[in-house]
Amino acid sequence: MRALIAGGAGFVGSHLCDAMLARGWEVVCVDNLITGAEQNIEHLLGNPKFQFTQRDICEGIDVPGTVDTILDFASPASPDDYLKFPIETLKAGSLGTLNSLELARERKARFLLASTSECYGDPEVNPQPESYWGHVNPIGPRSVYDEAKRFSEAVTMAYHRKYGLDTRIVRIFNTYGPRMRLNDGRALPNFLHQALSHQALTVYGDGRQTRSFCYVSDLIEGILRLLDSNEHFPVNIGNPLEITILEFAERIRAITGGSAKIVFKPLPQDDPKRRRPDISKAKKLLNWEPKVGLDEGLKLTLEYFQRRFAEAHLSSG
After folding, report:
1. Are residues 202 and 229 in the same domain?
2. How many domains does one find in the chain?
3. 78 with 141, same domain?
4. Same domain (yes/no): 131, 252
5. Are residues 144 and 201 in the same domain?
6. Which sign, positive or negative, has the C-alpha torsion 178, 293, 170, 141?
7. Catalytic residue (choose from 145, 159, 176, 215)
8. Domain range for residue 133?
9. Coil, helix or strand for 280?
10. Is residue 79 part of a domain?
11. Does the annotation count 132 as an active-site position?
């Protein structure tokens, strides 16, 4: 069996490459590396079942041979990234997803779309079930990501309904773990990078906005179970443990020595006030729920960040 993973050199995509190889599959990883990193997959480059191609899927996908499954994870995903690359983000969710779907149709392959909790916007319902249509500003700064993913969900369902394509949609909530970039703009990398650099931890707004953090191995398990299922409609995969950003900053301060100060800055426009998945559907349909607790996950992530931080300082020194 052979899988194509678009965005496979990214944080989540690279873990998915590992998981599919562990299943005995051949993996073709396609990534243009604007936010992914070859370092995330360098341990796979000598594997005869793994192939890496640096390419932008918005310009088309030419993969010779059979393709049994396509997993579309190609998009900037952190606010810093999609605000820096707004057009690229919109193209990834439109042209990129269309190209991936067309390839899946040509090869009669199963297709899985990586969507996002951002489809719910700044939700007026908490927790967010898949049936909630969302509260999204279609022209705000975050719309380049929100609307790209909402379009990619719509076109995925259109291919399923019109062509009978065997599709899956996973709505991914806040995920963390090894291979996140040191300062990619999301809460956890920012806090860890600041703490390890002996800087103050930056909390936006009053810190009472909430997030729900899922460790990457739990996310990957949920994605694989969804891939193996027969569900075509979106499924939330995330950790329903809700925590305020201020509490989260205090957790990071505690595990890194407890000396960092916390400073407050204005909340960015349209930043969600609540974020918590309703995972009832995943529990019932996939028999899935997260297993890694926040303390354990943070410890594993801190160890990775400490190694990367030391390597970065050695190379710069």
Report:
1. no
2. 2
3. yes
4. no
5. no
6. negative
7. 145
8. 2-176+214-237
9. helix
10. yes
11. no
Distance of CA 276 to the CA centre of its chain: 15
Please check whether residue 280 lies inside any domain of the structure. Answer: no
Rounded to whole angstroms, the Cα distance separating 191 from 256 reads 10
Task: Count Cα atoms within 13 angstroms, Cβ side, for 149.
Answer: 26
Residue type, 55: R
Cβ count near 216 (within 10 Å): 22
Report the alpha-carbon distance of residue 18 to residue 29 in Å, rounded: 11
User: What distance in Å separates the CA atoms of residue 169 and residue 270, rounded to the nearest whole number?
Assistant: 24
Q: CA-CA distance, 122 to 270, in Å (whole number)? A: 7
Residue 181 domain-assigned (yes or no): no
C-alpha 294/C-alpha 313 separation (Å) is 28
Packing angle of the helix pair 294-316, 187-196 (nearest 10 deg) = 50
CA–CA dist 16, 229 (Å, integer):
17
Q: How far apart are the first and last CA of the chain?
A: 45
Q: What share of the chain is helix, strand, coil (3-state, %, to 5)?
A: 45, 20, 40
For the chain, 317 residues long, give each residue's pLDDT as a single digit of tens: 999 999 999 999 999 999 999 999 999 999 999 999 999 999 999 999 999 999 999 999 989 999 999 999 999 999 999 999 999 999 999 999 999 999 999 999 999 999 999 999 999 999 999 999 999 999 999 999 999 999 999 999 999 999 999 999 999 999 999 999 987 888 999 999 999 999 999 999 999 999 999 999 999 999 999 999 999 999 999 999 999 999 999 999 999 987 889 999 999 999 999 999 999 999 999 999 999 999 999 999 999 999 998 887 666 65
Q: Is residue 283 part of a domain?
A: no
Q: What is the CA radius of gyration of the chain?
A: 19
Residues 85 and 9 in one domain: yes
CATH number assigned to the domain comprising residue 263: 3.90.25.10
